[in-house]
Amino acid sequence: MREDEAIELLVNNAGVGPRGPLLDDDPDYLDAMIDLNVVAVNRLAVAAAQTFAERGRGAIINIASVVALIPERFNGTYSASKAFVLNLTQAIDAEVSGKGVQVQAVLPGLTRTEIFERAGVSSARFDPSMVMDVTDMVDAALAGFDRGEAITIPSLPDAGDWQAFFRARIVLAPNLSRDRPAERYGVQRAEAV
Ligand SMILES: NC(=O)c1ccc[n+]([C@@H]2O[C@H](COP(=O)([O-])OP(=O)(O)OC[C@H]3O[C@@H](n4cnc5c(N)ncnc54)[C@H](OP(=O)(O)O)[C@@H]3O)[C@@H](O)[C@H]2O)c1
User: Fold this and answer.
1) Which residues are marked as active site?
2) Tens digit of pLDDT for each residue in 70-84?
3) Using CA of residue 138, residue 133, residue 79, residue 168, what is the dihedral sign?
4) Starting from the edge strand earliest in sequence, which strands make up the sheet with 151-152, in order?
5) CA 13 – ligand 1 centroid, Å
6) pLDDT given for residue 122 in this prediction
7) Are 104 and 145 in contact (CB under 8 A)?
8) pTM for this one?
9) Which of 22, 75, 124, 144 has the CB geometry, 3.0–4.6 Å to 18, for a possible disulfide?
10) pLDDT for the residue 172
11) pLDDT tens, 28-86?
């Protein structure tokens, strides 16, 4: 990628899913999941971001998942790996802003692919109304890309719901790092003693 000028797009898609709840899973399998879903994604995204920013052109599409937003409902290692992808994408997007590089995280919900069978899980247990056809998911993701979306959630009917979630996070920002603990913790500050 760094040497080949013809490469202008990175799609970080490869990933494996969980075989069930975290308490029942094999730690070695979860380590391998992190290697693919996190370490490899990071290595490729960083290489692409650095290379594309220097060239002033290029695009990175990272496939995350909606479970990044609902960690209580899914295997923690998998949802954490997808939260990593989401955070990484948002941070890269902020860093390459104005440098001619487009960055997108796609957050699919359940999608009809081989991921479940590969993990030894039957997809038949899912409510069909929650499972999207993979072609529809990819078409929506690409439409979001064409619109310049940094975050695309293919199934979300109202994009304003994501914006509201995003804004709620920003509201926290001024108070996330301060020189004193919040009053509710009743801490007698060291410098006041
Ligand atoms: N399906 C869903 O419900 C869903 C929902 C949200 C997010 N996602 C995400 O979507 C992405 C694609 O998954 P999918 O649903 O399309 O699953 P999939 O049908 O099982 O495809 C997985 C892809 O990852 C590649 N892969 C697996 N292990 C690999 C390894 N060790 N090294 C290199 N490539 C490897 C596979 O390549 P080969 O075919 O060559 O093995 C395949 O292209 C993943 O990141 C997944 O987490 C899926």
Assistant:
1) 78
2) 999 999 999 999 999
3) positive
4) 9-12, 58-63, 101-106, 151-152
5) 6
6) 83
7) yes
8) 0.95
9) 75
10) 95
11) 999 999 999 999 999 999 999 999 999 999 999 999 999 999 999 999 999 999 999 99
Q: What is the pLDDT of residue 181?
A: 95
Triad 59, 62, 68: Cα angle to 5°: 145
Residue with tokens 């957050």: 107
Compute how many other C-beta atoms are within 10 angstroms of the C-beta atom of residue 63: 23
Contact 29, 22 (CB under 8 A): no
Q: Which atom of ligand 1 is nearest to the CA of 82?
A: 47
Q: How many CA atoms lie within 13 Å of 188's alpha carbon, on the beta-carbon side?
A: 2
Measured by CA distance, the residue closest to atom 37 of ligand 1 is: 14
Q: Domains of the chain (ranges plus CATH)?
A: 9-157 (3.40.50.720)
Of all residues in the chain, what percent carry a pLDDT higher than 90?
A: 91
Triad 93, 94, 98: Cα angle to 5°: 85
